[in-house]
Design brief:
By secondary structure, this protein is of the alpha/beta class. The protein contains 10 helices and 8 strands. Helix 6 runs parallel beside helix 10 (about 235-245).
Amino acid sequence: MGVDSGLPDFRGGEGFWRAYPALRHHGLSFEDMANPARFAEHPELAWGFYGHRLRLYRETVPHQGFAILRRWSDRMSHGAFVFTSNVDGQFQKAGFSEDLVHECHGSIHTLQCLDVCTSDTWPATEFLPSVNETTSELESPMPRCPRCGALARPNILMFGDYGWVDVPYEKQRGRLAAWMSSVSKPVVVELGAGKSLPTVRRFSERNARQRLIRINLRESNTNPLHGVGLASRAAATLKLLDLAVG
C-alpha cells in the first residue's frame, strides 16, 4: 500500500539495500536492522535507519487509493475498520479515525523505553532526526526515556522482540473486536499483505467468510473459500474497482 505513495519496498535484500546502500557495506538486512539488539549494539545506526523512515513517513502524502477506501467506508452503515501491519501512520494521515485503526505491529510515530522501565509510550513529535545519508547513522541527539533517561526506541514490534510495549494496541484490538461484533457480512479488502509476515493475511482469511478481495502484485493466490485474488498494484486496482462499483 505504501509503495504506491513512493515509500521504499524492503522485500528482499536488493530492495532494502537500494533504499539504504550504506547498510550493504555492513552486510545488514532488514531483519538485522529491525531488531532491538541493534539499538544496544550500534544505536546511531539503528536510529539512523528508523530516523530516516520516520522523516520519510512524515513527508509522504497518501495516494488516491486511501481516499477511495474512505469513500467506500462512508457508504457503509458501520463504516470501516483498518487492520494494518504498516507502522507508517498513513491511514490516519489520510483521514481515517484513530479509533478505527488497529496497528498490529505498532507505530513509528510512538516511542518507548529500550530498557522497558515503564509500560508508558509517548509521541515522537519532538524527535527531529538528522541522518547522514552516506553512513546511515543518526547525527542529531537520540531520544531518551523521560522516566529513567535510557535510550528510547520506536514502539514497533521487531524481530526477536521481547520488550515491545503493546498496551496501546491492546486497546485498539478491543475496539476492533467490538466493531467486528457489530457488523454482519463484512467485506475484507486486503492490500499488499505478504506471506513472510502473514499476520494480516491470517486476519483476512479468518474474517472474510468468502468476501475477501486480496490485492497483491506478487502473492495474490487465494483459496476460493476465502475470496478472490488480484495480481496487481494497490492504487491502480482500487481506482478500477471504484469505477466498477460507481
